[in-house]
Structures are given as C-alpha cells and as structure tokens.
Amino acid sequence: MRENRLLAFLLVTLTAFAQADHSWILDQSTLTYHMSHPLHEVDGVSHAAKGKGVCHAGQCDFLLAVPVKSFDSGDSNRDLHMLQATRGAEFPIVTVRFRLPEAALAAATLDCDLEVQFAGNTAHYSHVVFRQVIQGTEHHITGTVPSTVSDFKIDPPSFFTVPIKNEIPVRVDMTWHLS
Amino acid sequence: MTSSRRFAAMVSKVFLGTMGFTVLFATSPPLAAQLLSGESTVKVDSATLPDAPIPTDAVLAANDLSSPAADFSSNPDQQAGQGNPPVAGAQEPHQNPAPPSLEDLGMTPEQTKADPDTQARLDRHTRMLKIHQRLGLITLAPLAAACISSAAAPPDPRKGKENTVGREIHTGLGSLSVVMYGLTASYAIRAPRVGNAPARGGIKVHKYLIYIHAPGMILTPILGAMAYSQASNGEKVHGIASAHTAVAWTTVASYSAAVVAVSWPIHLKF
Fold it and tell me: Looking at the domain assignment, is residue B238 inside a domain?
C-alpha cells in the first residue's frame, strides 16, 4: 500500500512539474562594444544590464536591457559624444529579445536569433552562437553580437574627417540562474 | 478486501489525486490573479473559448510573424523605427504567461522615458565642440608661423638698423593667433553643459592645461608689446619684457599638449 501511494505521488508530481513555468534571472553581465578608427581603438564597457527569461510550454522568451549611458570607455567626453550619436537621450535603453526552446538551454552552444532595439531602430541577427558553461545552477554565457553602425542608421562619428569603422561588435559575458 | 477491490481502490485514488493536483498546478499565477480580480469574466465566456488549445507557433504563422519578439511591446516610445503589427498572441488563451517587459526587469519609467530636451542639448553640445575642435586645429597654423617668424623679430645690431619687417610679420602672426585662440575658446565656453559627471580620461588633462595656455595667451602679447616698444626705441629688450619668449614657448607647448591630450590614446592603424 505504501508503494502504491509513493507511485501515485510520483505520478502526480511529474505531471505537475511538466506544466510548471520557469523563470531565468540575469545575475551579472559585462557588455563591451568595440569601436575602430585609424587613430583610435575604443572599448566601452557596461555592467548594468538586466535580464529575465520566462519559460512556458517548452519555449523560453528572454529579454535583456541595458542603459546606453552605462557604457564607459574611460573618457567622459567620448561617452557623451557616443550618447549624442546614438540618440541615447531619446532612446535610453538597448533591448535584446530572443526565444529558445527550453530543451536547448542545457547545450554547450546556444544558437540564437536576436532582435536588438537601439538608437530608435531594430535589427535582427540570425544564428548568433553563444558558448555556455554550466556550473551548478549558474549558466555562464559568452559570445559576440556582430552589430554595425549602419544596422541602426547611426550617423558614424568622424575624427580628422575620417569616420569610424562600420563594425561595432558587442562582446557579451553573462551569468544566468534559474529562479 | 479482495485484490480486485484493492486494485480498484488504488486506481480511483490515483485518478482523483491526479485530477486534483493537475487543477492546482496547471493554473498559472497570471491566471490565478485574473481569476481573483474577476477580469476573466469576458475571457471565460464559452462562446469565445477555443475548442482545443492553440499552439503558439500556429498563432505566429497565422499572423505571419517571423520574429518571436513581436509579442513584446514594453515601451511604445522605443519602437520608433519598428512598426510591428499588434500581435494576436497578446490575446491568446490566458494560460500563456506574458513575455518579460522592461518593468519586469525593474526598469523605472525615469530610466526608460525619452528626453528630447536633453537630446537637443547633446546635439548642440556636440555641434559646438566640433567647431571648437576644428578652430583649435586651424589655430595651430598661425601659432606655428608666429614661432618660426620670432627668429626675425629682434633688432639686428650687425646691420645697424632695425629689421622692422621681421618684427611686423611676427607681430601680425601673433595677433592672429590670439584672435583665433579666443574664437576657439568661445565655442568651448558657450557649449551647453550636459550632466554633472566629472571629467575622466584625456579630456581631464585637456581641461587642466587651460590653466597654462590661457594665461599664457594673455601674457604673451602684453610682453610682446612691451618688447616691441623697447626695440622700436632702440633699446635692448630688458625687464619683464624679456620673458616674452619663454612665456610664448610655454604657451605653445601647453596648447599643443592640450590638442594631443584630447585625442589620446592614439593608435596608428591603417
């Protein structure tokens, strides 16, 4: 009789677990944009990103948001100019949205289709591959988003009449955990 | 109790227990909140309930939406260039939890709202500083020419007469440098301030050097005028006027350093 009760309990627990929603929370992050010019190589770093993922019925929707003004290149004048060029006062938040199957969240690589909103425009990046290392409950994810200035219709700043390079890749280093 | 009766009792208990736990755990928090708030009265109308659960992919396909994020619409002000149609998935059966929004991340309206006034200040700030940069670079030309022409400025005792031509050229170039410098500085002074953050990086050094080249650009022409007067009277330049050369070179050096500092770090890469 005790075994039957145990079996019944396991059956209903599995049923309940299969239908439960899960949430993912971004613990910490480092986002780094890289800007190139014949006379300058600049990296701007932000640790202010916030993120959340909601899983339901085998699909997970993620949202990552970071304030534009949180990026620090080490020069306040350059950061102010970056804020102006990217219209950071009008569109203060960069958002990244993507969807993944829940079953794929345990893989060593994540193939993501990203929707990025920045400077008042939206760009889509397909098959962006991120590497994942799982340590206990923490998922450490790294990768690079191949963004460009023209994707977001930004007027490229220039120095000595020479504009910056179109490519502004963003390196991503994030740690998520299941809440 | 016979074995068949025991088996039937066990099956009925399992069935009842499963039904009970399924009802409890299948209800998502949003649905529970809606049920409690009474907002679901319209959504649970039997005439609008689908006969079977509608898969999310089918809904997306029916609405011809390729982007999974088209469901997201947290801040309409940020969607200026997007123009995505409203998503029928937003009115999906209430079992699907809403995708995360900026509010879910803890972003306050102050962080997410657009600020066109600040953007306008930023635009003007950048426009004026670009003019300041161009004028500052152009000013290097008369400054360098004044430095070169300074060799011909002092009177030449070997010739027995004053070489006024060299002095006039040097005076003209120096005066032009002072006027260009003043014009350059005016654009930086009048550019609107944005934010109260302290200066960091090369711009900090650029600002500190002002305390050297600004007084120098005032003193240099004054001392130069005194030296000009003494030389015109046939006197040897003496007294404080003799410091004109040292002050001028210090001014030019700090001005050049200020130009380099705001451009730092420089990586030559072609």
Answer: yes
Closest residue of chain B to A12, computed from CA coordinates = B18
Q: What is the pLDDT of residue B186?
A: 98
Residue A13 located in a structural domain: no
Number of neighbours of residue B8 by Cβ within 10 angstroms: 12
Question: Residue A7 domain-assigned?
Answer: no
B211 domain-assigned = yes
**Domains held by chain B: number:** 1
User: Is B259 touching A (CB cutoff 8 A)?
Assistant: no
Domain boundaries, position A62: 21-178
- How many beta-carbon pairs under 8 angstroms link A with B? 180
- pTM of the prediction? 0.73
ipTM of the complex, rounded to two decimals: 0.84
Residue A2 within a domain: no
Neighbouring C-beta atoms of residue B63, cutoff 10 Å: 13
Is there a contact between A98 and B22 if contact means CB atoms under 8 Å apart? no
Domain containing B156: what range? Answer: 121-263
Dump the DSSP string for B169-205.
HHHHHHHHHHHHHHHHHHHHHHSPP---PPP-THHHH
Give the DSSP letter string of A85-132. Answer: HTTTTTS-EEEEEEEEEGGGGGSSEEEEEEEEEETTEEEEEEEEEEEE
